[in-house]
Amino acid sequence: EDKGSVDDTTKLWEILSEYQPRTVEAIQKQIVTHIEYTLARSRFTIDHHSAYMATAYSVRDRLLEYFNDTQQYFNEVFPKRVYYLSIEYLLGRTLANALTSLNISGVYRESLRELGFVLEDLYNQEQDAALGNGGLGRLAACYLDSAAALDLPLWGYGLRYNYGMFTQSIIEEKQSEFPDFWLSRGFPWEIERLDVVYAVNMYGFVRKATPAELEDGYKGKFVWEPDMEVLAVAYDLPIPGYKTNTTLNLRLWQSKPSHDFDLMSFNRGNYTAAIALRQECENITSVLYPDDSTPQGRELRLKQQYFFASASLQDIVRRYRKSGRSLLEFGQYNAIQINDTHPAVAIPELMRILLDEEGLPWGEAWAVCVQTFAYTNHTVLPEALETWPVPVMEKLLPRIMQIIFDINCTFLSCVRKRFPGDESRVERVSIIAEGHTQLVRMAHLGIVGSHAVNAVARLHGEIIQDRLFRDFYEMFPKRFTYVTNGVTPRRWLLECNPYLSHVITDTLGSEDWTKDIEQLCRLKDHATSRKLQQQWLMAKRLAKERLILFLKTTQLKDDPNPPTLDPNAMFVVHIKRIHEYKRQLMNILQVLLRYLRLKDYAELVTGTESIPHVVPRVIIFAGKAAPAYTRAKEIIQLIVSAARLINNDPVTRNSLVVFFVADYNVSKAEILIPAADISEHISTAGMEASGTSNMKFALNGANIIGTYDGANIEIAEEVGKEKLFMFGANAKEVEDVRAAYARGEAETIPTDLDRVISFIESGALLSKEERARGITGAGAYRAICDEMRSGTDYWLVAHDFQSYIKAQAQADRAFANPKAWTENSINLTGGMAHFSSDRSVKEYADRIWKVKPCPVPGQTGSIEEE
Ligand code: 8GP
């Protein structure tokens, strides 16, 4: 390695180990320096965005001080390390988070104030990093935060997509998708590592190694002769630990062509072919989950996954090898967590490296793999149980396919030994599904190649053991476990809800709860205190006012006749991906019933300003539908058109307001969650693996209307189920009901539901434009109405409807008593310690990864300053 030409590095070290001062004056100078030298702006061209960028660069400088120390310390101590491989990271914004972690928000606020900027205004200049889709990606982000706070030697690996999750707009009451080019205004937090580059092989063929090659030092038996080579370039994102010196790394790979497009061919006039190759390489990290409805799209996804797995594994192995330790001990020093099946191809990739590049015998290489890997399943829905056609894999990754066949062969011979004559079992568990086209089952590969397979909540654990992976559970009972998800209390309470955080700190006498979450339990001792209740109500009110302001300046900006938004109303929030199993449909149908009932009631009490004895509600939906998911898009349209009808009805508008907030993302969640009185987690039982927003809401003192599903069950146990509004069929009952439906035993739909469906069928929700086009009746909602009327709807909306209405009515009654409501709310927050991601990550570290914290010793300019 080139160590540079300096002989005496004393001076260099001296300066390097100095931390930049944290006085207001010093920070101001750093910010201004970035304005002038990094951004090349003059004092006449400083706008909010450049002030944000310069501030971000100056904060990044400080992050790098910790980052460098941390990485150096890990290299010296060489602890067992964890690598978290995830195709998604929903990070959200960074500035507030970094300032909170480093404990320097105050001094930055002051520095900026004197420069003429309000820190909070700059927060809004930052675009969300939405390199993910939903729960799985946000969980990965929470786990990074906790791992850093707990001083665990962990790195995340992911992909640096050029386009994040699509931007959602509502046009003519429908979802439209636009590309989310999140990098367009620059991303100041990352470090481009043009020197950390790996070549990833694709296509071509495999042949036996020749005697000459073996003599020459080639260690493997086979040689992969690729037809294409793609380069993976590293981009590092420092992940600061809250109030600790540890700053971890999230390394994201970007694809790049390995030879600049063929100049010769270009000069000969093959312009398109030359550029096409370049494009093909760059496409690999251009979007998250490329459309897989075409064979090319499916191949691109597999390419993306292998690119990700190979670059990460090469990097991990190289780091380990530098220590000079034996590869046989690799699993004692490295744990790799596979977040769902997307990175599962990492298992045969590690085998490839160990066999072909390191020359390990099969048995030893396999033992290393199983010791190293662990796999998390995040859903029982088919999207997490990926399969790849063997011909596609064979063409793209010939050596990997060969290794998978070998893994399967060895595995199946174990199965046959354990269960002689049980060929149907062999067929069920095989990594290769037989059929017209053979398929590689990535979940099976994940289970066979890992020492631990975990679910994300207790019920989900039972379901994967008893149903989804039952045969595997019978073979490897010890491998299966669950770790109930958690959320980081830093982003999801301390940062997003400064009002409530102040009240909590004030009540508990210190801010220790932000790190030692068990402290929150002590809130329960004060739940009946009048003083606390008043402060608690005030905090909720402030959060609601912040949300109202947000709605007024966005959603309602151009509305000539906006509905009045009363902070005393009950705010009900339903935010998550739009999916049939999450049953936003059931909610909007319930809202329409409420509307119809209000109209009935208003007829009886005409002449009054607002309808007496009714708890006014503001109901907010948000979430994105997958672009190809027609039914989910119809549900959005139904919500938006219902909102239009309801919000414009002068009779009900003081008692009921409905919003669909477009383009849901992490930073919108940070405004919505603190303002909620109630949140909806109403999935068909057995379908929501865990849910994590339920935890975020309860942490912010919002109640839950929920089914006996995922983590709702454990939350109910923790806080007492009488404190929540639980309803509906449980997972076992759902199975029984579905079995009855399958036998042809349809249910009669409840009268209330029938009323709502008839209302939709009457054409009440049609827009002016739709009417003008001659559309009548249910219009776009025909299929939804028919399904509801069938009496056999798969998601049990009709079946659960009545008990859902009852739960809603209970909530109305409870909200009418503010004292009891607030006491309950305090107890909810007080009961959430168990759902901190600090607890979850500790469980992973102790039970699955077997790693210990590796706290980085303090330096000057420490975190303690504020
Ligand atoms: C989600 C689950 O739906 C949710 O219940 C759970 O809380 C979360 O993962 C974290 O564990 N699953 C996904 O986001 C998911 O399966 N995404 C698909 C793209 C695979």
From TrEMBL:
Catalytic activities: [(1->4)-alpha-D-glucosyl](n) + phosphate = [(1->4)-alpha-D-glucosyl](n-1) + alpha-D-glucose 1-phosphate
EC number: 2.4.1.1
GO MF, one annotated term: pyridoxal phosphate binding
Modified residues (N6-(pyridoxal phosphate)lysine): 696
InterPro entries: Glycg_phsphrylas, Glyco_trans_35, Pyridoxal_P_attach_site
Cofactor: pyridoxal 5'-phosphate
UniProt KW Hydrolase keyword: no
Example GO BP: glycogen catabolic process
CDD domains assigned: GT35_Glycogen_Phosphorylase (cd04300)
Pfam families xrefs: Phosphorylase
Keyword terms, alphabetized: Allosteric enzyme, Carbohydrate metabolism, Glycosyltransferase, Pyridoxal phosphate, Transferase
Domain of life: Eukaryota
GO CC, one annotated term: cytoplasm
Annotated family: Belongs to the glycogen phosphorylase family.
Full protein name: Alpha-1,4 glucan phosphorylase
Origin species: Kipferlia bialata
Lineage per the UniProt record: Eukaryota, Metamonada, Carpediemonas-like organisms, Kipferlia
